[in-house]
Amino acid sequence: MNPDALSLPWSCTPAARPACGFGLIELLVTMALVALVAAFVLPSLATFAARQRLAAVSAEFSAALALARSEAVRTGLPVLLLPLAAAPAAGNEYGQGWQVVVDADGSGTAGPAETVVRRFAAPPAPLRFGGDAPVSFAPSGFLGRSVTLTMRLCPGNGATQGSAFAIQPTGLADVSRIGDCR
């Protein structure tokens, strides 16, 4: 076998060194640029992730309200949206999660014989979620009380922006952004 047939078309001689790969300086400059970009991107990525968690919990609670309202109309019975915690902390009533329950006996509480339509898991740890509890829908789909109920979903990490829910007597919910969560 001819040894010249196995050689590469270029060789790594000192004159051809740029074609041989990266040197230590190029590698260090590239790593410094990657670190610089990461220093700018990571804080905004954490803010983005926190906003997405807040949006996901807002959407999930809105879906729970729509489910409770539609279940009340479908069954012709009152339906409750209740916190899962037995003794919820003020300002974080829904912090342990919530459930949609058909109130067959009309007592306004979830008894052992009541049908649980769905349970929703607790929001991620740094979020606080509180407000008027329980939410009761009449068989017409309207609220059981003729007052607007309010809820607040706020990040627990000191950030100021959150979500506010205003559940109208008609049973419809308005979700808005708020900037006074501290």
Query: What is the CATH superfamily classification?
Result: minor pseudopilin epsh domain
Mean pLDDT: 83
Number of helices: 2
Q: How many domains make up the coordinates?
A: 1
Ranges with pLDDT <50 over ≥5 residues? none
Radius of gyration: 29 Å
From the 3D structure, determine the CATH topology.
Answer: minor pseudopilin epsh fold
Strand fraction:
15-25%
Spatial strand order of the main sheet: 3-2-1-5
Largest sheet: number of strands, sense, barrel closure: 4 strands, antiparallel
Q: What would CATH call the class?
A: Alpha Beta
Structural class: alpha+beta
Order of helices and strands: HHEEEEEEEE
Report how far apart the termini are: 79 Å
User: Percent range for helical residues?
Assistant: 25-40%
Shape descriptor:
elongated
Number of E strands: 8
Any idea what the CATH architecture is?
Answer: 3-Layer(bab) Sandwich
Task: Give short descriptive properties of this protein.
alpha+beta; minor pseudopilin epsh fold; four-stranded antiparallel sheet
Write up what this structure looks like:
Residues 60-169 form the General secretion pathway GspH domain. The protein has 182 residues and is of the alpha+beta class. It has a single domain, classed as minor pseudopilin epsh domain (minor pseudopilin epsh fold, 3-Layer(bab) Sandwich), CATH 3.55.40.10. Helix content is 31%, strand content 24%. It has 2 helices and 8 strands. It has helices spanning 3-6, 24-75; strands at residues 79-83, 98-102, 115-120, 127-131, 135-137, 149-155, 162-167, 173-178. Strands 3-2-1-5 form a 4-stranded antiparallel β-sheet, covered by helices on one side. Strand 6 and strand 7 form a beta hairpin. The longest helix has 52 residues, at 24-75.
